[in-house]
Amino acid sequence: xSIRLIPTRYSTRSSFTSSLKTFTQSQVIIxxxxxxxxxxxNTATQQSFQNDPNHMIPTNVPKGVNxxxxxxxxxxxxxxxxxHPGKKVAPNEFLKAFNNKxxxxxxxxxxxxxxxxxxxxxxKLFPYVPMAVIKALVxxxxxxxxxxxxxxxxxxxxxxxxINNMMISLTxxxxxxxxxxxxxxxxDETVKSINGILEPHTKKMIETCDxxxxxxxxxxxxxKPTGFVKNAANVLKNYNNGEEAAFAELVAKxxxxxxxxxxxxxxxxxxxxxxxxxxxxxxxDAEKYELQPGVYELQRQLYKKFNKLNxxxxxVGTLQMYLSxxxxxxxxxxxxxxxxxxxxxxxxxxxxxxxxxxxxxxxIHKTKQDTDDNYNAxxxxxxxxxxxQKDKESxxxxxxxxxHNADSLKLASTKVYTQENATNINKSNVVLxxxxxxxxxxxxxxxxxxxxxxxxxxxxxxxxxETKQYLLRRLEENGDTVRNDNGWPLVKATFNTLMGRLFxxxxx
Length: 508
What we know:
It catalyses: L-proline + a quinone = (S)-1-pyrroline-5-carboxylate + a quinol + H(+). By secondary structure, the protein is an alpha/beta fold.
C-alpha cells in the first residue's frame, strides 16, 4: 500500500475544522494493492484502473483531485513503513486460523447473508430463535462468553491469531428502556472484569512479548452510560434540566469503573516501568444522537478527573464521525481540554446507530464519501497530534481507530508504521479495533502480511438474553458490512476449508 498525503504539522492546534478543510481540498491519493479490500462504491474507478500493473486502485479521492502516481520517495510509502508481503495471499487464508466449530459458524453466517432479502428475513426471525440454537451456531464467533473465565479463554484464542488485547464489553444497556437493568450489578461486574480479565490478560500478553513492551496494545473496557443508572435515557436527555442528581449518580458509577482502571495501571506500572502507553483504558461508548449531549458531558467530567496533564490517558471518549457536526465537536473537545488542563483520549467510529437515528436527514453527512473523508481526516489529525508530541504534551493523547473499513485501517497503519516512527514511543497510543467476528480478513492481512501489532477486537460478554440483543443490533446496524464480508463467497470458502481438513485428516 502506498499513501501520499500533503505533509501536515499542526502548530496552532486550535481548529480541527480548518484541518479537515485542508485535508479534503488537498491532493490526497490513497492507493490499494490488497487482495481483500473491496470497496463497492468505487466500482467504476476500479474498472478504469484495471490495467495498472501493480493493481493499485485509487479510492476515497475527493472531487477535483488529479489522479497521479505518487513519487517513490513518498515518506508514507510501503518501503518507508509497512513490509510488503513477498507473495499474493489467498483471500480466504484467514479462515485457517479458526477451528472447525468456528468455521461452521462462519458457514451459517454466510448462508444468512447470501443477499439482502435473506439478511432481512434473518433479522425478522432472529428474536424467535432459541438462545440454545444461537449459541450452537453463531454465538462463538461474535461473543466472548457469559463468565469471566470464558472471556479469558476468548482472549487467549485471539492471542493465537496474533491479536494481543481486546476491548471487553458487558452487554447490558437501556438506551430504549430496560426495567431489568441493575446499575449496582453492572458496575460490580464491570469492576470484576477489569481486575479479573483485563489486568491479568494484559500482564500475560506483556510477559509473552519477545519485543518492545509497548508493542502490546492496551486493554480496554467499554462503559455503556445507559447501564449505570435507572431511566438512563431520560437522565442523559435532561442531565442539566431536572435530572442533575441522577446524572451525578451516573457519573459516580462510571467513576468507580475508571478508578478501577486507574488503580490497575498503577499496579502494572510498578512492575513494568518502561511502558509508555496505558495498560488498561476505560472507553465511554456512544449512544443515540439525542442522548449524546449527556454522554459528552459524562466524558468531560471523567477526562478532567482521570486524564491529568503529562500522564497517560486512562479514559477514552467516543465520537461518531458520520455526524455532520463531528469535526467541530472534535475541535471543541480539544479546546475545552486545553482550557481546563486535562487530556483527551478518543475512539473514532463512523457511527453505530445510523439505521436507528430519527433525524438522519439533518444530523449525518449527506453521502458516505463525505463520512469517509471526515473519518480519515479525523484519524489523520489525531495520529499526527499523538506522534508529533514530545512527552505527553499533546492534548489528544490516545486514539482507537474503530473501523471495519480497510482503507481507513491501512491509512492509520501507514501513518504509524514508518521508518521515521520506528523509535517513536508515542505510536503505542494508536490502536486499531474491530468487532469480534467482523472484518477478520482485514485483521489477518494487517497482522500476518504487514506485521501490524496494534490491533484489538471488541469482545461482548454477559447474560444470554443481553448478548442475544447485542447480536440482533449487530445484524441491524452492521448488516451491510456483514453481508459484504460474508455471503456466498464465505459459504464456499468455509466449506472448502472444512473439506480440505477432512480429507487431509482422512488421508493421514
